[in-house]
Amino acid sequence: MKTEVQPTVSSTLDKHITKSNRKYKRSKRMLSISSVSRCSAPSFFLSQKPTASRLLTVHSSSTREPNSNQNPGQRINYSGVKLEESVDSKSGKSRLDSWISSRISGISRARVQSSIKSGLVSVNGKVIDKVSHNVKAGDKVNCVISELQPLRAEPENIPLDIVYEDENVLVVNKPAHMVVHPAPGNATGTLVNGILHHCSLPTVSSQEVLSGAEDVSDDDDEGSCSSSYAASVRPGIVHRLDKGTSGLLVVAKDEHSHAHLSEQFKLHTIKRVYVSLTCGVPAPMAGRIDVPIGRDVTNRIRMAAIAEPNRGQARHAASRYKVIELLAGGGSALVEWRLETGRTHQIRAHAKYIGIPLLGDEVYGGTQNMALSLLDPEPSLAVIANFLYHFQD
């Protein structure tokens, strides 16, 4: 009697990873790379370090000159600034974060929101931690802006899975659980720390970093990193991947490449393809999700797909998907995603919206128990990152 052994989700994934990692093409005018990795330690490291040239490093200063064109009544921004002021009749009814931002020049709303969430703002003597709280004429607002926290990125000898490198760009396969650049709570062990060492660059530092109270995501969002972080601690970075996601990241090595890549992300001319394991199978098996994405009002660390007419502050987001293979007896699927936009947690939020959260993604419903029931020996999330970069003289 012959027993037929059915492949597990894990073994099918391994086969897909091996096949995809063989496919990459290079040319003088176009770089086309396909790579896949699992959300675990990278499967291999470079045994020989390629020659690296210069890497773009943008220096910033925390010192600002007064703005002669600032609005009357506005205060100059500096660390630890205090604001004690009553809302005038001209302001009318306004959001708390918006009103404070209008009273202090040169400060981002993100820093104001950070102060509000940290309990550093009161209205009429009562602490308010809701950024959307409305203030009206006569309300007395007391606010202390969060101190800027210094941050350094030091070179670290971290093995990097480098897929491609030339004089313009460095393409690295980021493993899961690695943060792209330093941030409060993740000052070491980031991809940037490894890149600085690889390119023989010195320590970079910045005073322009928010306190740990600020909500942070490492996901790419239209190809530009959050303005909450100074460019000096993320040299050459033009896009990001979430901490728990593996895949390719391109790093610019000079200003020209940085400008071109940033523009391509902005214009959506860079094509991004991802592959994920899902809890369940989408119906239909292929389709397009065009649903805005915004912050989940019930969980600040999570994004949510918000259908019209309740979109509020949500931003346009569109994803195309198709099932590559059914797995685990139809309980899971290998799904390909092509992004038309690049919102924070876009795939994760859209997958949850259509009822197929990613395996192992507990934030969006793909619980570990469900993953363990389908995967052997442990849950993991696979991501294929397939980019086309067009370089022009």
Automatic annotation (TrEMBL):
<dbReference type="InterPro" id="IPR036986">
    <property type="entry name" value="S4_RNA-bd_sf"/>
</dbReference>
<feature type="compositionally biased region" description="Polar residues">
    <location>
        <begin position="1"/>
        <end position="12"/>
    </location>
</feature>
<dbReference type="InterPro" id="IPR002942">
    <property type="entry name" value="S4_RNA-bd"/>
</dbReference>
<dbReference type="GO" id="GO:0003723">
    <property type="term" value="F:RNA binding"/>
</dbReference>
<dbReference type="GO" id="GO:0009507">
    <property type="term" value="C:chloroplast"/>
</dbReference>
<dbReference type="GO" id="GO:0000455">
    <property type="term" value="P:enzyme-directed rRNA pseudouridine synthesis"/>
</dbReference>
<feature type="domain" description="RNA-binding S4">
    <location>
        <begin position="94"/>
        <end position="159"/>
    </location>
</feature>
<dbReference type="InterPro" id="IPR006225">
    <property type="entry name" value="PsdUridine_synth_RluC/D"/>
</dbReference>
<keyword id="KW-0150">Chloroplast</keyword>
<dbReference type="GO" id="GO:0009982">
    <property type="term" value="F:pseudouridine synthase activity"/>
</dbReference>
<dbReference type="Pfam" id="PF00849">
    <property type="entry name" value="PseudoU_synth_2"/>
</dbReference>
<dbReference type="InterPro" id="IPR050188">
    <property type="entry name" value="RluA_PseudoU_synthase"/>
</dbReference>
<dbReference type="Pfam" id="PF01479">
    <property type="entry name" value="S4"/>
</dbReference>
<feature type="region of interest" description="Disordered">
    <location>
        <begin position="1"/>
        <end position="26"/>
    </location>
</feature>
<keyword id="KW-0694">RNA-binding</keyword>
<dbReference type="InterPro" id="IPR006145">
    <property type="entry name" value="PsdUridine_synth_RsuA/RluA"/>
</dbReference>
<comment type="function">
    <text>Responsible for synthesis of pseudouridine from uracil.</text>
</comment>
<keyword id="KW-0934">Plastid</keyword>
<keyword id="KW-0413">Isomerase</keyword>
<comment type="similarity">
    <text>Belongs to the pseudouridine synthase RluA family.</text>
</comment>
<protein>
    <recommendedName>
        <fullName>Pseudouridine synthase</fullName>
        <ecNumber>5.4.99.-</ecNumber>
    </recommendedName>
</protein>
<dbReference type="InterPro" id="IPR006224">
    <property type="entry name" value="PsdUridine_synth_RluA-like_CS"/>
</dbReference>
<feature type="active site">
    <location>
        <position position="242"/>
    </location>
</feature>
<keyword id="KW-0809">Transit peptide</keyword>
<dbReference type="InterPro" id="IPR020103">
    <property type="entry name" value="PsdUridine_synth_cat_dom_sf"/>
</dbReference>
